[in-house]
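Q: What structure does this chain adopt?
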Amino acid sequence: MKCNYEVNDDYNASKNIGFKHYLKGLKSPQGRSYCQLALKSGTMTPNGRMFPTAHD
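A:
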């Protein structure tokens, strides 16, 4: 079954690496997050907030 989802290989690899670290919940020693995941569709922070990308 093909889902017809195609993206640039570098973007896909970056997204997969980002999700790997995002799911680990990277935190600073003080317990605050210092990581966010930037996607073409927006930015997701470790607390689960999604900020959509503005489209022209």
